[in-house]
Amino acid sequence: MRIHPIEPENADKQLKTVFASLEKMYGTALNPLRVLAHKPQAMRAVMQLYAAIHEHSATISDELKELISLRIAQINGCRIYCVPMHTFMLHKLGTPEDKIRSLVRYATSDLYTDAEKIAIEYAERITVPATTVTENLFGRLKAHYSDVDIVELTTVISTLNFWTKFIDALEIPLDDVFKEVPASG
Questions:
Q1: Is residue 144 classed as helix, strand or coil in its secondary structure?
Q2: Average pLDDT of the residues in 151-159
Q3: How many domains are there within the chain?
Q4: 93/33 same-domain check
Q5: Residue 94 dihedral angles phi and psi, to the nearest 5°
Q6: How many CA atoms does the CB half-sphere of 180 hold within 13 Å?
């Protein structure tokens, strides 16, 4: 790890509250957020964004958000933290192993719906620098998702691109809690 994390007991009062909620949710304060805590204003802002993108959506499932997150992690090479963490979260959601394993081949897989395929393609186009979101792709996206959904998807994708770059650049290690495969929920 290139930057030592802030220990929860050494954080300011507001961050201690954030760390306590993370402990409750994940069983740990999460290494990336402990590093980001060096800049408390950024950490608080990221936590608000994180809460917004992980708010329940009637049209964009938690599973789809995690599949998109895992695909971005694969593309960006965030293999030490992001790939195992999002794989863990997919297992926790009860996503079948064959669906997780076939993610890199989603476009030709029968395990993915047309709506999931277009959302993952959209994520890839935003993530891979040499590609663009064409009018054709955007039209296909609009056939499955509302404007609100597209803004939500774009926010999830952009946020995950931030995290993969942040975690990889600072060589943040995986939290132990994500090293075990949870029982399917």
A1: coil
A2: 97
A3: 2
A4: no
A5: 90, 15
A6: 7
